[in-house]
Automatic annotation (TrEMBL):
GO molecular function terms listed in the Swiss-Prot or TrEMBL record: magnesium ion binding; phosphatase activity
Organism: Rothia kristinae
Protein name (record): Hydrolase
Sequence segments annotated as region (Disordered): 270-318
CC per GO annotation: cytosol
Pfam family, one: Hydrolase_3
Coiled coil regions, renumbered to chain: none
Amino acid sequence: MIRLIATDLDGTVLGPDFRFRPRTLEAFAAAEEAGVDVVFVTGRPYRWLQPLREQLAYESVAICSNGAVIYDLGADRILASETVDPGVIPQLLARLRAELPEAALSAEALDSIYTDPGWGQTNVLETSPDVVRGPLEQVLPADAGVVKLLVRQDGTDPGALYERVRELAGEQVSVTHAVATLPLAEIGQAGLSKGRTLARWCAERGIRAEQVAAFGDMPNDTAMLRWAGHGYAMASGWPQVIEEVGRTCPGFEEDGVAQTIERLLAEGAADGEGAGGGAETDADADAGRGAAGAERVAEGDAPVADSTAVDAGTREAR
């Protein structure tokens, strides 16, 4: 029986209106009633998650900014955060300016957003009152506590921009992208991923990979989907993600996540296992897949050997 459901938001369980579909909400509620936790795992900043609170009838936790921030939705409180090493930022910005002169840059910190003057609006739900505009090299304080740097170059193929930024960034940071139609590369602390943070969150609670069902649609979801024992790429998702994960559920418009949760809960009930039960209901290969995933949370990530929530450089919430 699964003990935890981890799901991406945009394109997975949320549409452009940032609303859950009714069947999805019913599936989440059924999971909670069965003792299965639901954790949201998103590239979005925690500030953008306020509209979720009014839609949920229970408290939940969100792993935000591609794994950099753990946020308690019910208490409206940051539990932990992992920031980009400030020592690598100046050289990285200089390299990006030199090689991508037409790109606009932005930095997301816990309490503020710093953007180039040419940075466009990326989401209508941006609610932070603390947006500082100006050349990033001039307005970004050394101690800002950056959880994510963003690189945007309109008119560029999203995949090509991601690959170029990854090449320029090297191994001192992590690079991913999360929006299929937007040329936007996202940079975080070295080794950071949704999968790594989720794995640590689960380890602290005694939850094994094979007891986790995860859902996502974009490259920033891949590490999470490969780690979870039941990792599902959305059939409507990025083709490379579908190929790498090797298992899909129906797309967003078909309530694919809800369908799969309903099936997993029914299988667990049929097996006579409670929420804390250890029996697996998928094929035996799933258990092996989950165990192997624990050793490869993401290519280049540190093994999930200890259960501490944050590494050196991580800041506890105020």
